[in-house]
Amino acid sequence: MAGTRAHGMGAGWLAAAMALWLAFAGPATAQRVEGDRAQARGLYQAEVSVRGQGEAERASGFARALAEVLAKLTGDRSVGDRPGVADALRDAGNYVAGFDYRQDEGVSPTTGAPTYGTTLVVRFEQAEVDDFVAALGLPVWPSPRPKPVLWLAIDDGSGPRLVGLSKAEAARSVLERAQERGYRLGLPNGTAAEQAAAGAIWRGDAAAIARLSARYSPPMQLMGKLYRNGSGWAADWIFVDHGKVLDRWTTSDRSALRAMAGGADGAADALSRRYAKAEPIGEPGRYTVAFTGLDDAGDYLRLVAWLRDVPVVRDATPVAASPGRLELQLELATGLPGLRRVLDAELLESVGEDDAHPEFRVH
Q1: d(CA 203, CA 182)
Q2: Could you give the strand order of the β-sheet that contains 325-332, starting from the edge strand earlier in sequence?
Q3: What band does 15 get if pLDDT is binned at 50, 70 and 90?
Q4: Which of 258, 275, 292 is the endpoint of a domain?
Q5: What does the alpha-carbon distance between residue 201 and residue 151 come to, in Å, rounded to a whole number?
Q6: Mean pLDDT in residue range 182-204
Q7: Does 143 reside within a domain?
Q8: Is 179 found in the same domain as 156?
Q9: Cα 299 to the chain's mean position, in Å?
Q10: What range defines the domain where residue 333 resides?
Q11: Neighbours of 253 (CB within 10 A)
């Protein structure tokens, strides 16, 4: 019977399978998560502001939330510009495990009137995200991640003062920004000896701060001095890892909070440059790939569904069909190595490693 079914396939089954291709393009339905106050936690969750709870706005929110998750995983704020990532962001709904909305109330800085906003909180499937990160060859900033000590001195006109643990609220914007980038910053206890170190921070004496920070772990320090700069604020930063200065930078803004938050971004950039690693990937391009073992319509549908969900596959064009065999020209974001990384072992297996004539068998 299997032979009879296969004999009747060929171009007819190919046309039917390709006609069904678009049927798998719709967004996945997410299960809403109920809670008193929805909040993103961990590397695979993110929250973004939205203008409403409509489907189009939610789809846009999913894409922005996934971009934030990828930025945390890789440490790369420009990860959306890497090959294949834009396609994954368009299909962000496919990776959503659940979502919820949160209503936030604030105060307008200009009028003092109450303001209200809607935040979309999204949880993504870790395994699914990890698969396409590997397939696209994105760098991964491994966990657990270090918790550098933040040595921050602020001068609002009355001299520099160290922000110790008891004054953590003063450093809230930089501490929260670090969490958004996928790591945490610690604060010194603020002892008298540490308070006296505000002068060393102001001089940029990284060695003195490293010695003072020896009681804390890990041996990483983010030094920053925040001061008034014309009508706004500026902050000078130094990031030290095991006694070595990894980077120096300056941030400025009309808002002291935003100028301060830039310290967390610079430290994340320095850490990810040093510790995030990417596996080698293949060359983007078009590859003719054969799929065998297609005994009935169900096999075709399973293959089509899988190809629609794989982020490395940008496009597919039918080339030839024969009983039990289908050849497609696939446009691949990271070549055949990327495709092989995301093979579903329950569906497909690679037949040899011949990149000139790649073949995959459907189970």
Answers
A1: 30
A2: 313-322, 325-332, 285-292, 359-362, 348-350
A3: low
A4: 275
A5: 7
A6: 96
A7: no
A8: yes
A9: 33
A10: 2-24+282-362
A11: 16
Tokens of 219: 């041996």
> Is residue 252 within 8 Å of 229, Cβ to Cβ?
yes
- pTM equals 0.73
Same domain, 168 and 252: yes
* Coil, strand or helix at 19: helix
For the CA atoms of 252, 254, 258, 260, what is the dihedral angle to 10 degrees?
A: 50
Please give the single-letter amino acid code of residue 235: A
Tokens for 132, please give them.
């396409």
How far CA 51 is from CA of 99, 103, 118, 204, in Å, comes to 16, 11, 7, 44
Range list of H helices, the chain: 2-7, 11-19, 55-74, 85-90, 126-135, 172-180, 192-195, 198-203, 206-212, 256-275, 297-309, 335-341
In a domain, 253, yes or no: yes
Task: Output the six-digit token pair for 117.
Answer: 């906003």
Q: How confident is the model at residue 62 (pLDDT cuts 50, 70, 90)?
A: very high
